[in-house]
Write a structure and sequence with these properties.
Elements: E1 7-9, H1 14-24, E2 33-35, H2 38-52, E3 59-60, E4 63-65, E5 73-75, E6 80-81, E7 84-85, H3 92-114, H4 119-132
Parallel strand pairs: 1-2
Antiparallel strand pairs: 3-6, 4-5, 6-7
Helix pairs in contact: 2-3
């Protein structure tokens, strides 16, 4: 009895590529295809944990919507830190003016600073994603 394939799609645009993959494999359950934004998620958690002064594992229910690009949306609406809502600990102004733009452009900033992508970070994020799946 084999367990069905699970696919983690990393290539940008990951959401679109995951949809194409899933549509091309109708015998595999749709929930077995994930578009990975884990690297963006982990970077955003790091920002939140620094701002709040809590370890990143204390932050729950935070998510990233969209593709790995400047259009992704880091969603803090249901997030908590140590079981407490992020608001009023964070201001909407900080979320809108600092947090969201930094998350949306972090990958490009790293490439600009290093002159190359953070392939090792992406690999580590893929391992974490599969481990937590």
């Amino acid at each position: 009895n084999r367990e069905p394939l699970r696919a983690v799609v990393v290539g940008t645009p990951a959401n679109t590529n995951a949809l194409i993959c899933a549509a091309s494999a109708p015998d595999i359950p749709k929930e077995n295809f994930h578009a990975m934004t884990r690297l963006d998620h982990d970077r955003a958690l790091s920002q939140l944990s620094q701002k709040l002064g809590v370890p990143s594992y204390a932050i729950q229910n935070f998510m990233i919507w969209g593709n790995h690009s400047s259009t992704m949306y880091p969603d803090t609406h249901h997030a908590t830190a140590n079981g407490q809502a992020l608001f009023p600990q964070l201001t909407q102004q900080w979320i809108d003016e600092d947090f969201i733009p930094t998350v949306q452009t972090r990958g490009a900033a790293i490439i600009k600073a290093r002159g190359l992508s953070s392939a090792a970070s992406a690999g580590n994020a893929a391992i974490s994603h599969v481990r937590d799946w």
